[in-house]
Automatic annotation (TrEMBL):
<keyword id="KW-0472">Membrane</keyword>
<dbReference type="Pfam" id="PF00822">
    <property type="entry name" value="PMP22_Claudin"/>
</dbReference>
<dbReference type="GO" id="GO:0005923">
    <property type="term" value="C:bicellular tight junction"/>
</dbReference>
<keyword id="KW-1003">Cell membrane</keyword>
<feature type="region of interest" description="Disordered">
    <location>
        <begin position="192"/>
        <end position="211"/>
    </location>
</feature>
<keyword id="KW-0965">Cell junction</keyword>
<dbReference type="InterPro" id="IPR006187">
    <property type="entry name" value="Claudin"/>
</dbReference>
<keyword id="KW-0812">Transmembrane</keyword>
<feature type="transmembrane region" description="Helical">
    <location>
        <begin position="7"/>
        <end position="27"/>
    </location>
</feature>
<dbReference type="GO" id="GO:0005198">
    <property type="term" value="F:structural molecule activity"/>
</dbReference>
<keyword id="KW-1133">Transmembrane helix</keyword>
<protein>
    <recommendedName>
        <fullName>Claudin</fullName>
    </recommendedName>
</protein>
<comment type="similarity">
    <text>Belongs to the claudin family.</text>
</comment>
<feature type="transmembrane region" description="Helical">
    <location>
        <begin position="79"/>
        <end position="99"/>
    </location>
</feature>
<dbReference type="GO" id="GO:0005886">
    <property type="term" value="C:plasma membrane"/>
</dbReference>
<keyword id="KW-0796">Tight junction</keyword>
<comment type="function">
    <text>Claudins function as major constituents of the tight junction complexes that regulate the permeability of epithelia.</text>
</comment>
Length: 211
């Protein structure tokens, strides 16, 4: 029963992490304009994401523009996109795989060994998805930090971490933790030894010798 609760907890955490990865991928706030120094801009906030760039005016109006051409984008941005999309697809596969191996589900009840393996396999896929999202967000954040501290970067083009990066880091951590719990939720099989054979006891000697 305890392993079933641990399995359910791992699945819930990994599922929430997968939802967070989707939200982080869709958000345009991967980096936001920095207002350090004497930077004067007409917009209240400037954001850039994986798919579009947005500007929020001082009146509260938000204008977004989708990137025109895929071929004109930087290779780093294209790689980040690919990693995040791969994390979403892997998470979808992990959900179906882990649900099949959940103890609370009726699937594959006749073969408990295969059922446990499906749950563990789903946890492994969740871990791979979390690693892909963690690499993508960390790589993107490293580029933002390096550009910010680069003395050759103009002040009015410097960016800071956006909220989508923090959501992505949290989501990747949840996916990794949930996947690890799914992998550890299966009870260990105890080694069974064959029962010892009893040997017949010698009949007590009556003291009489037979010829």
């Amino acid at each position: 029963m305890a392993s079933g609760g641990l399995q359910l907890l791992g699945f819930v955490l990994a599922f929430l992490g997968w939802i967070g990865i989707i939200i982080s991928t869709a958000m345009p706030q991967w980096k936001m304009a920095s207002y350090a120094g004497d930077n004067i801009v007409t917009a209240q906030a400037l954001y850039e994401g994986l798919w579009m760039s947005c500007a929020m005016q001082s009146t509260g109006q938000i204008q977004c523009k989708v990137y025109d051409s895929l071929l004109k984008l930087e290779g780093n941005l294209q790689a980040t996109r690919a990693l995040m999309v791969a994390a979403i697809l892997l998470g979808l596969v992990a959900i179906f795989t882990a649900v099949t191996g959940m103890k609370c589900m009726k699937c594959m009840e006749d073969d408990q060994v295969k059922k446990m393996r499906m749950a563990v396999f789903g946890g492994v896929i969740f871990i791979i998805a979390g690693m892909a999202a963690l690499v993508a967000t960390s790589w993107y954040g490293n580029r933002v930090a390096r550009a910010f501290y680069d003395p050759f970067t103009p002040v009015n083009t410097r960016f800071e971490f956006g909220s989508a990066l923090f959501i992505g880091w949290a989501a990747a951590s949840l996916a990794l933790l949930g996947g690890a719990l799914l992998c550890c939720s299966c009870p260990r099989q105890e080694t069974s030894y064959p029962p010892t054979r009893g040997y017949p006891k010698n009949a007590p000697s009556t003291g009489k010798d037979y010829v």
